[in-house]
Design brief:
Strand order of the largest sheet: 4-10-9-8-7-5-6
Oligomer: single chain
Largest sheet: 7 strands, mixed
Order of helices and strands: HEEEHHHEHEHEHEHEHEEHHHEEHEEEH
Bound molecules: pyridoxal-5'-phosphate
Number of helices: 14
Structural class: alpha/beta
């Protein structure tokens, strides 16, 4: 199928006018990005007609794959009936049903759903809600939000400030007051001689010490991705999240699980917090997989307990003066409902759980390639972290980003990845089959070996 538009025109408009997220400004106007013409299942088709496995699944969002008729039809039907209604004063079937469905799928007493336009606005809503709640409760001194190194929570002013990836911080201003960080929970980067259990103990102790240093009555919330996604698919040691959750409960600190990536099937469950890590957060933030990326939508899901504290007789006549024109957008919510229906009716969560062991086997087998320092993964999300020498210790300060070199080779071979410095992360559409997982890792293996050969030839591989 040829592109239904003029490729040269699109390329030049894109180069000149579209200011992209994470744009490399020194290269602006000359990037010549891959033009995607259409999608089919787990594949994207580029301008030359080449089929590429969508390794990153869009941006961690493409759960049910491209070309899903159920979602397309639901979007069309909803847009035809009522494409928009003001969420400030009206309601409609799709958002009401979706709110109820999310409340049913969410763990514990998470019962109240605030719709947003994406992940950043869901996290922003969570933080604003927490501060609002504390003010209503007469605890205005509870302000501090504790976040973690290597975390990513969004690109609004506040959520970027809460994010812990130092590489993203340069030359922007950030909110500093009232935000603090604990250090990386990546067990692979633990100090030499420390066991994973000792590392876990140290991280829990660090969190508690941080709370005590601020004074527990001044700490409003802790925010954590159950798996740190763009930080490099970092899974904290067993028991870490549960122990930190217990400390939060003890001191009345709100626990926010940022499940923008892990929600809606990525690890074989609707949410990872309870089903994988055994914790019931006070708030979950979600987006991406909620609509499989077909339309922008996010949700901030709040516990009954928190909500009850500041509503009805406890509200003190206050309005929650926060919201978006597109909160509960009926077309996006119709896409969300159809997406959830698709996941349920096709048994996609069970499918993820059944193919994940094979995915992880192939992922971890890559460690036999000398260029690979570490592999990490869970469900259908993974990361390969490369090293230029076995002594490399800092993933964020490499001499040059190996991830891009690997990605270039893989794209030639038919696989898209997402390079982040020396890492490549991937989260393919959840409909991927065991054979397609093999195709994906066969390509990745060749891509890594070719990159190693290049680095040996150029003298950049230091062994
Ligand atoms: N939180 C996490 C864990 C994410 O990975 C992301 C995006 O990748 C966000 C929040 C921000 O979501 P959005 O880009 O939809 O604003």
């Amino acid at each position: 199928m040829t592109a239904p538009f003029d490729l040269n025109e699109v390329r030049s408009y894109d180069n000149v006018h579209w200011f992209h997220p994470w744009e490399d400004l020194s290269n602006h106007g000359q990037v010549n990005r891959t033009i995607v013409t259409h999608g089919d299942g787990i594949y994207l088709v580029d301008e030359s007609g080449k089929r590429l496995i969508d390794g990153p699944g869009g941006m961690w969002c493409m759960q049910v794959g491209y070309g899903n008729k159920r979602i397309v039809e639901a979007i069309t039907a909803q847009a035809t009936r009522i494409p928009y209604m003001s969420p400030y004063s009206m309601t409609n079937e799709a958002p009401s049903r979706l709110a109820r469905k999310i409340a049913e799928l969410a763990p514990g007493d998470l019962d109240h759903v605030f719709f947003t336009t994406g992940g950043s606005t869901a996290v922003e809503t969570a933080i604003r809600f927490v501060h609002f709640r504390n003010n209503v409760l007469g605890q205005p001194e509870r302000k501090v939000i504790i976040s973690r190194a290597d975390s990513y929570h969004g690109s609004t002013y506040l959520t970027a400030s809460l994010s812990g990836k130092v590489g993203n911080k340069s030359r922007f201003d950030h909110v500093v007051e009232g935000i603090d960080f604990v250090t990386s929970v990546n067990p692979w980067r633990r100090p030499a001689g420390q066991t994973v259990e000792q590392f876990c103990d140290a991280k829990v102790a660090e969190f508690e010490a941080k709370v005590m240093a601020h004074g527990p009555e001044r700490v409003a919330a802790f925010i954590a991705e159950p798996i740190q996604a763009s930080g490099g698919v970092v899974v904290a040691p067993d028991g870490y999240l549960k122990r930190v959750r217990d400390i939060c409960t003890k001191h009345g600190i709100v626990f926010i699980a940022d499940e923008v990536v892990t929600g809606f099937g990525r690890v074989g469950h609707w949410f990872a917090s309870n089903d994988v890590f055994g914790i019931e957060p006070d708030i979950i933030t979600s987006a991406k997989g909620l609509t499989s990326g077909y339309l922008p939508l996010g949700a901030c899901i709040i516990s009954k307990r928190l909500f009850a504290e500041i509503s009805g007789d406890h509200a003190g006549k206050s309005y929650f003066t926060h919201g978006f024109t597109y909160s509960g957008h009926p077309v996006a919510c119709a896409a969300g409902l159809a997406n959830i229906e698709e996941i349920e009716e096709t048994g996609l969560l069970e499918h993820v759980r059944s193919v994940s062991p094979h995915f992880l086997l192939r992922l971890h087998a890559l460690r036999s390639i000398p260029l690979v320092g570490d592999t990490r993964g869970m469900g259908l999300v993974g990361c390969v972290e490369c090293v230029a020498s076995k002594d490399d210790t800092d993933p964020w300060q490499p001499e040059y980003p190996i991830g891009e070199l690997v990605d270039r080779h893989c794209q030639q071979l038919g696989l898209l990845l997402r390079p982040i410095m020396n890492m490549n992360v991937f989260s393919p559409p959840l409909i991927i089959t065991a054979d397609q997982i093999d195709q994906m890792f066969d390509i990745l293996e060749v891509g890594l070996k070719r990159t190693l050969d290049d680095m040996v030839r150029s003298g950049d591989w230091r062994g």
